[in-house]
Amino acid sequence: MSSKSHPFCPARPGDSRSPCPALNALANHGYLPHDGKNITIMMLVHAMKTVYNLSTFLAFFLAIVGAIFCGNGLSLNLHDLALHDRIEHDASLTHADALPGDKYAPIDVDQSLVSDLLDSSPGGDLTLEDLARVRVRRDKSAVVPLDGVHAEISRGECALVLNVFGDEKGMVPKRELRQWFGEERIPDGWRGPKETVGIRNTFAKSKEVRQEVARLTKHA
């Protein structure tokens, strides 16, 4: 995916970026306009299908929701997705919370949170339980608890990580997450998920994350 035709090029001054590592990585590799501006729904759909092997339905769903809630309905700048409490939410896995009264959330990666995520397991991989454990810690850190919608979004984000980067045993290599979360780049040598990531398997995985979060919270 990070081939010679799509080399990694980090954001330059004036480029638009979001709190979403998936979209920032697409822009940093040129699958989306590198400046992150005036991105249409069709651009988003094509890039997400090409790199992350999302189904057409799921790619359209995510793109349309982003454009409607954060953009102008047809397109967006990546930084529009930082609008606080639209799709973005507090207690992110790898970004600091928005300060009280701020319209936009931080877009810079919080490397201490990335380290906390990767250190949640002693081995070289993360599992669903590891991600759920970090999700519980981040939920507890929130000054104001996430509402139902944003809590569901946060679990859906974990589900997408598992479905996009996980192997057949559900193991997610830390090396890949370190580059994707920490550097917002497509991991070196990564070839994408073998199976299409669709709405059904994403909802199913999100349900597993929700159940594991509930179990860990109960026994905390």
Automatic annotation (TrEMBL):
Residues 4-211 form the Heme haloperoxidase family profile domain. The chain crosses the membrane at residues 51-69. Keywords: Heme, Iron, Membrane, Metal-binding, Oxidoreductase, Peroxidase, Transmembrane, Transmembrane helix. InterPro entries: Chloroperoxidase (IPR000028), Chloroperoxidase-like_sf (IPR036851). It holds the Pfam family Peroxidase_2. Its cofactor is heme b. Gene3D superfamilies: Chloroperoxidase-like. One of its GO terms (molecular function) is metal ion binding. Belongs to the chloroperoxidase family. This is Cloroperoxidase. It comes from Rickenella mellea.
